[in-house]
Amino acid sequence: MRVVISAIIILAAIAAAVFFLYPRGGDAPAPQLSEAPAEQQAEPGDYPPPTFDIVRVDANGVTVAAGRAEPGSVISLLRDGETIAEARADQNGEWVLTLTEPLQPGSAELSLVATTPEGVAVQSEQTVVISVPEAGGAPLIVLGEPGEASRVLQGPLSQAGAGELHLQTVDYGAGGQVIFAGQAEPGTTVRVLANEAELGTAEVNENGQWSLSADVSLPPGVYDLQIEQLDADGNVTAIIVLPFERASQEDINRSGDRVVVQPGNSLWRIARDVYGEGLRYTVIYDANAQQIRDPDLIYPGQVFDVPEGDEDSGE
């Protein structure tokens, strides 16, 4: 009997609690279910862009390209915007592509698109320009990336040099800054001066490569460019002196096909690379007559318009 009374008292207490918590005539609040956060859709910026590590063309014309991307991605190699080969990045994010069909003579731009396992397409920031000579021989392969110095991956490139010290490329960044790059003795320092005013210094890496982005104000005009190699004590061990023309911002930003004069270039060499024959230098000369006072005197850093190859060569 005592057990029954106790049970009735407990039930009454529960009923009273329910009455006070949920008054008569009112509805009990619906239970609040925790909502799982909506899955965010992946975007290209969530993944690292695919990159080139190696691009080489052997004596038989076989092209080998290798690089890195998001593991498991399908890598599409594009030539002038058209897919020419595909591969898949392994679990370490490494990929390799081989093109057995020789590249046709002329210039082409290679880029990458990596399609991740989630189906997101990520465009490469790097581009590789390949220039295949008409008459055969080793192609020129140059790797470019916005805001960085161009890097020669393969091929003959006219360059200014003394011993191990070389100036290989001159580029312009998006903001108009001049970017110099070349080779020197590993572990040394390279100093660049224009009209004896220092533009900056760069450390030479273990592969003998150096690059310098000259952020100082350098008005358009012709300068005496001096490049020095310094040892650990600051002594000059090698030196290059050559003329350099700083292009105007208008020249740098103008649209259309153009070429930045590289160290050691001449109109003949530029015409040979672009059109396949040096005699067509007159086409470039005519298109840039206001910049060129003497066809034999062109300077690294100048920016030239390059007309289409089917225009009258002037021969």
Provide tags for this entry.
seven-stranded antiparallel sheet, 315 residues, single chain, disordered C terminus, mainly beta, 39% strand, disordered N terminus, four-stranded antiparallel sheet, Immunoglobulin-like
What's this, in brief?
The chain is mainly beta and 315 residues long.
Structure description:
By secondary structure, the chain is mainly beta. It has a domain at 46-156: Sandwich (Immunoglobulin-like), CATH 2.60.40.10. The protein has helices spanning 2-21, 249-253, 267-275, 281-287; strands spanning 51-57, 63-68, 74-79, 82-88, 94-99, 106-115, 121-123, 127-132, 140-144, 151-154, 160-162, 165-172, 178-183, 189-194, 197-203, 209-214, 221-230, 236-246, 258-260, 303-305. Strands 3, 4, 6, 7, 8, 9 and 10 form a 7-stranded antiparallel beta sheet that branches. The chain has a 4-stranded antiparallel beta sheet with strand order 11-12-13-16, with no helix packed on it. Strands 15-14-17-18 form a 4-stranded antiparallel beta sheet, with no helix packed on it. A hairpin with a 7-residue loop joins strand 8 (127-132) and strand 9 (140-144). Helix 3 packs across helix 4 (281-287). Mean pLDDT is 77; it is low at 1-38 and 311-315.
